[in-house]
Amino acid sequence: MPREPSTARTTMPVTIAGQTVVLDQSGAAWLPATGDLLVSDLHFEKGSSFAERGRSLLPPYDTAETLRRLEKAIRRIAPKRVICLGDTLHDLAGEARMAESDRNRLARMVAATGWVWIAGNHDPAPPEQYGGEVTDELRVGDIVLRHDVVTNPDAAIPAGEVIGHYHPKAIVRVRGRRISGKCFATDRRLLILPAFGAFTGGLNVRDDAISGLLRGDFQVFMIGRSGLFAFRRDALVPDPKRAA
Amino acid sequence: MTAALPQVLSGWFAARDWSPHAHQLAMLEAAREGDSTLLIAPTGGGKTLAGFLPSLVELIEAGEAVQGLHTLYISPLKALAVDIQRNLDTPIAEMGLAIRAETRTGDTPQAKRARQRRDPPQMLMTTPESLALMLSYEDAPEIFAHLRCVIVDELHAIEDNKRGDLLALGLSRLQALAPDLRRVGLSATVAEPDRLRRWISPTREAKDVRLVLGEAGAEPKVDVLQSGARIPWSGHMGAHAVPEIYGLLKRGGTTLLFVNTRAQAEIVFQELWRLNEDGLRIALHHGSLAVEQRRKVEAAMVRGDLDAVVATSSLDLGVDWAAVDLVIQIGAPKGSTRLLQRIGRANHRIDSPSEAVLVPANRFEVLECRAALDAIREHTLDGVPARPGGLDVLAQHILGCACAGPVDRDALYAQVRTAGPYADLPREDFDDVFEFVATGGYALGGYKRFQRLFRTSSGLYEIASQTAVRDYRMNVGTIVEAPTLKVRQGRGRVLGEVEEGFVNHLVEGDTFVFAGRLLEFVEVHETSVITRPGQGDAPAVPAYAGGRLPLSTHLADRVRTILSDPARWSDLPEQVREWLDVQRWRSLLPSREGLLVETFPRNRKHYLVAYTFEGRNAHQTLGMLLTRRMERAGLNPLGFVATDYVLGVWSTRSAEDADLDALFDEDMLGDDLEAWMADSSLLKRTFRNVAVIAGLIQRRHPGEEKSRKQVTFNSDLIYDVLRTHEPNHVLLRATRADAASGLTDVRRLADMLARVKGRITHRHLDRVSPLAVPVLLEIGREAVYGAALDELLGESADDLIHEAMDNPGTREFGFDAA
User: Fold this and answer.
1) pLDDT at A157 over 90
2) Pick from A10, A65, A243: which is nearest to B721 by CB?
3) What percent of chain A has pLDDT over 90?
4) What residues pair up with B463 in beta bridges, in sequence order?
């Protein structure tokens, strides 16, 4: 039914370590205080990585589609700086497989605004030929932006962290139907961004890999067609319990 | 006539005091002249023997001279292939013939398969999928070089679906490997024999296939149960009639009870056992039960050790039993052809009539059962709309051919067109599918270097890697099932399988009925659901995917005819007549050709009920499209519910003054349909099946669970991206073609809208009409389709949002404002 649900909103502000972070329906987030736009896990050329391994000739349009969505978000939000939280490329050889037109498009985007590449596990060396700053982590006020959480046991736990890496998705059960979708997950200290890439799937936030990082009372903001939907942890369906 | 048979065969017949049926001899004569044949005969007519008789004669006459595989028998059921082989072994042994008959299915051990390739038996019983696999071997030309006859059993069950497409393509290739091949189709009674002749024909012409008809059996004796109980207004389970059904079982003899869904089978089985004070031996049979369990039930049935079996379509086909005395169909039959075939299971002796009782589960089903009864008496069957072969299946076939050896593209096109379902395949479509197999077929040429088929200097297409060959063999076939998990009692015995989607709903301690037991969910262990015996009596019955067939067009027409003509009501139960009488008085009766639409207020909402009778799938599509229009007309629709007979929509504003001709205009199948398809979960599911069959995404195999993230790919994401960037890609075309039937049934909807144009009658009422009650009762019981996913999300998204929305500090802002 085309009716707009009353509770759907296309943006949703949350507070992480005292600082406002606005979650966006596109899967990006932004920091009003600094004008930074955050996106994570673009996974450019995921489709062609399957083709290269002889597995499947998936549609070669995922990079173009991801770029289109990113351009749209940048146009709408007009950030001062774009920060990619890692795994921009699906694999190290991905850049070589990118179509000429996609490369040009990306180059134009990077040239037009401030840009920071944070290293991910798929792409420890982000694509620096486009310009922009390359780093492992970035601090904005009390918030640390990284690909994954700080794992060094000697390091101080930051007051606030925004990361990607886990591709969170949530499942809710409504009137007997299961609805799943990419989501933001946060406990007000840690915020995990959904994967932005067009071909990126998700991991259930109730999986230990994600819920283990968050306090028990975390909540998610699920991405629907018309906006974001908030759910508390208790409302989320875990994957079936699997014995060890 | 028996003189035509070799001595050893006629002697064998004579020793049993048998003589061959006329149709068996007709098959023999056709074979002697090298003709392909279609045999249409009711069950119990010695159909299978008729199929094999010519091959036995040829093998006997040729003696030692026969080498290699002579006859290939293909059945849609593994069990049937095994059973037929056993049934052949007996006469072969009794006549002392030097003929080897073997089976080859997915269950055949690797060593035996390898031996069958080296040294094939004279007769091989197999399935469409196993045939496709064998044809993908490099040595396929040697294996099939001497093949003289291919027999396709239960052709009626396979010719109009994708398994049939795959088999038809396989036959086209077999014919090329063995040009003298004779084809034989065996079928139950169907509405249009010429369709099946075209399908089995080596030339796609019906005239090149000889039609042989078996002797007609005695007229079946069929009745509708005259229940003394109150007939429910809605629901599909038929539980109200179980005491009377039990009474029929107590009369003695063996009874087969057919139901429409596995969930219904579990409920009827439980209810019967609740009443079973006489200790009747009642068993359960459905497609989710463990194979061994099903085989045990079948074997007990053959031995005559059972009084009754509650079964789903799992017993529609298969092994012949002589011992069934009565068939009971619980719930609406949905079509006359399948009903007739089910009734045919009652008695496999051709000369005595089958007996059957139909048990309607609600008032509309009373009309439907009545309509089915008339159809059987008047010998009218359901027509099947023509559907061209699937392009996804063609992609799989092309890849299979390339696995066997280099492919000549033009020659393959010519060969494919000899397959009935592909007789009219345009070259353009073939080329698009071929390109898809070779390079992905995308307008953006980026994948040329990753091609799956490459062109050799001689112009042939060769497979690029062994990975592609292995992937093909792992994914062969057209049956795309929801992933399933085994249900185990404790860590022990496997009871059967349930869809993963069902298990995902369970939490520890939930109970459900399965295999006739109440089970409590404990946990999922690897690919198994671990359960313990459950306590209490309020289970959540397994809700399996699919299983419910929509009402056939033919029966729908008959139901409308009965409804519109009170003179035909005399046979109906009193309560149903009264229901219709009140309807006539309070509103109108739906007419045969037109469309009755009622509007009325109820509980501060406004209802619109359309008596369309086009089956659940078409109604769901209509509901989606109609509510879009009502939205635009400012009627504020809130949701809808679709049954097989009726569509009901509710809204905040009344449609009493709406222009119904405009609302139901055919143009809803244009842009609105396109827009809906972009976002429809039904279309996404259809695309997933197409993508798996065509080899774009891989099936999930047991054992890959642990690395699931690596091997599976979310087909919804691919669908979205492909629709945006290449909306005319061949796989999207294949998806739209599938949408014409099946889950969305767009074609049937189109036919209906055309039929009722200018014939819509609108009645505005001050309250609900009698005929509208059943659909209103379904609200809350059936899934509400009108509500899109977001609407449901909005319904349950928690109060946090409201809090957030009410807080003035959190209004939307952008950087421009910041």
Assistant:
1) no
2) A65
3) 64
4) B453
pLDDT for res A64: 95
Rounded CA-CA distance B77/B75 in Å is 5
Distance CA B349, CA B43 (A): 8
Which residues, 6 or more positions from B115, have their beta carbon under 8 angstroms from its beta carbon? none
CB contact under 8 A, B440 and A53: no
Residue ranges of A 115-154 with Cβ closer than 8 A to chain B: none
The pLDDT tens digits for A181-194 are 899 999 999 999 99
pLDDT at position B703 = 46
**Helix axis angle, B391-404 relative to B427-439, nearest 10°?**
60
Cα B187 to Cα B770: distance, rounded to the nearest angstrom: 43
Q: Is A71 on the interface with B (CB under 8 A)?
A: no
d(CA B376, CA B788) in angstroms, rounded, equals: 41
> What integer pLDDT is reported at residue B814 of this predicted model?
27
**Average confidence (pLDDT) per 10 residues, chain B, 818 residues:** 74 87 92 94 77 92 82 88 85 90 89 91 95 96 95 91 96 96 92 92 93 84 87 81 94 90 87 93 89 86 89 77 83 87 72 86 92 90 85 98 97 96 96 95 80 92 91 88 78 81 69 81 79 73 58 91 93 90 90 94 89 90 88 85 90 91 90 74 84 86 44 77 92 90 84 93 91 79 44 46 32 29
Counting DSSP H helices and E strands in chain A, the numbers are 5, 16
Which chain A residues are Cβ-neighbours of B503 within 8 angstroms?
240
Which residue among B524, B628, B783 sits closest to A177, beta carbon to beta carbon?
Answer: B783
Task: Label the pairing between strands B326-330 and B221-224.
Answer: unpaired
A10: which chain B residues are within 8 Å (Cβ-Cβ)? 812
Option in B436, B439, B631 nearest A3 (CB) = B631
Q: How far apart are CA B334 and CA B385, in angstroms?
A: 16
Count CA within 13 A, CB hemisphere, residue B91: 19
Chain A: closest CA distance from residue B757 (Å): 25
Closest CA to A38 of A88, A98, A106: A88
Give A56 to chain B, closest Cα distance, Å: 6
The backbone region for B182, taken as left when phi is positive above 0, alpha when psi lies in -120 to 50, beta otherwise, is beta
Question: Among candidates A166, A137, A161, A198, which has minimal Cα distance to A19?
Answer: A161
Show residues of chain B in contact with A242, CB under 8 Å.
Answer: 523-526
How close A16 gets to chain B, by Cα (Å)? Answer: 14
CA–CA min distance B112, chain A (Å):
30
Query: Does residue A172 belong to the interface with chain B, where contact is any CB pair within 8 Å?
Result: yes
